[in-house]
Design a protein that fits this description.
By secondary structure, the chain is α/β, with parallel strands linked by helices. It has two domains: 183 residues, Nucleotidyltransferase, domain 5 (2-Layer Sandwich); 172 residues, ATPase, nucleotide binding domain (Nucleotidyltransferase, domain 5). It contains 14 helices and twelve strands. The radius of gyration is 20 Å and the shape is globular.
Length: 369
């Protein structure tokens, strides 16, 4: 199979579309190489429409239908700009793997009929780019009783599994962990909030998209009472498999915890950073006493958050995936390119030990140009 694939990803933070052109090399030698990568902006009006659809509201069906097409168009635009900058013809690309934009995630245990919904019409992507598109990766796992998330664990196993205890933590809007044990077993789950609430709070009080380097959080002090209230949320104590999203960890969740407390905004930001660090560290502690922790996603650049993690995990070596040749900013988008490749090869893309699905399965559906 030709080795060039595009991966498209828009996460819980809804800050941009990650688009990567990946060369997977020769069969049997899986060494993903990023040939080009861009962060394609999501304009403010579209971001507001996405976030509005993440919680129940009026005219949801009409809004979702229109947003599905709009996102398909902007995903296709991202892929086309990526190829233009790389100087690569569409005919050289085997397929696009598109995650889409999650607007609602109701895993098993939260509703009677679990479902997950990602928008970004793959028919539109395929038609506008002229490239076969693979999408809808999560629902097959959910049909088999799984959470449908997190989905990167099989990819992490393929590229990072070694003879040492290694954990890969993606800190996006929501944080998730893949645990790669020395015996080859793989576990993982969503640990809880990542950047989403940090971004929300700094946007609310300082009109910034994110807290660069965690500098504002570093200027405050984590409040023990608020930390205790937030960490008492039942999700943290729930046994895996488990997955979550804005449905649980949102502005209302934070505002309820703040009731009766008088804190400076910087102290709240510091506490939110501590919640992310504490929930990740707890997952790592439950996995092993020491090993290598690889960080990816936007949180890999948050120096304050990483220092909080290191204090909680003194026996762990903490770095990011760059040291193994895959830029931490683009790892998840590379993973969806890999999932598209798995689909076309007829190979499984999920890890039942992570999602709780009854069996391994080929994920996604193929949409011809």
């Amino acid at each position: 199979m030709p080795s060039l694939f595009i991966g498209l990803m828009s996460g819980t933070s809804v800050d941009s579309i990650d688009a990567v052109l990946v060369d997977f090399g020769d069969e049997g030698k899986l060494k993903p190489r990023i040939l080009a990568a861009i962060g394609h902006p999501i304009h403010a009006a579209l971001r507001e429409a996405i976030l509005a659809l993440c919680t129940p509201g009026p005219s949801e069906l009409d809004r979702a239908g229109q947003l599905d097409r709009q996102l398909g168009q902007i995903f296709a635009e991202a892929a086309s700009i990526l190829l233009a900058r790389a100087g690569v013809e569409t005919t050289a690309v085997t397929a696009i793997g598109s995650h889409g934009q999650t607007v609602r995630h109701r895993p098993p245990g939260t509703v009677t009929s679990p479902f997950t919904l990602q928008l970004g019409d793959p028919n539109t992507i395929a038609a506008l780019t002229g490239i076969r598109t693979v999408a809808d990766f999560r629902r097959r796992d959910m049909a088999l009783g799984g959470q449908g998330a997190p989905l990167m664990s099989a990819f992490h196993r393929a590229v990072f599994s070694t003879g040492i205890n290694r954990a890969v933590v993606n800190i996006g809007g929501i944080a998730n962990i893949t645990e790669l044990a020395t015996d080859g077993s793989v576990y993982g789950y969503d640990t809880g909030p990542g950047n989403a609430l940090l971004d929300y709070w700094v946007g609310l009080h300082r009109d910034q998209l994110f807290d660069r380097d965690g500098a504002w959080a570093a200027s405050g002090r984590a409040n023990p009472e608020l930390l205790n209230r937030l960490m008492s949320t039942p999700y943290f104590a729930a046994e895996p498999p488990k997955s979550t999203g804005r449905e649980t960890f949102n502005a209302n969740w934070l505002e309820q915890a703040l009731t009766g407390l008088e804190l400076t905004p910087a102290d709240v930001q510091a506490t939110l950073s501590e919640v992310t660090a504490a929930s990740i560290a707890e997952a790592v502690h439950l996995f092993a006493d020491g090993g290598e922790l690889l960080i990816c996603g936007g949180g890999a650049k948050n120096k304050n958050l990483l220092s909080r993690l290191q204090r909680r995990l003194p026996t762990w070596s903490i770095s990011n995936t760059n040291i193994y040749g895959i830029d931490a900013d683009w790892l998840e988008a590379v993973g969806f390119a890999w999932l598209a490749r798995q689909t076309l090869l007829g190979l499984p893309g999920n890890c039942p030990g992570v999602t709780g699905a009854r069996k391994e399965a080929v994920l996604g559906a193929v949409y011809p140009p």
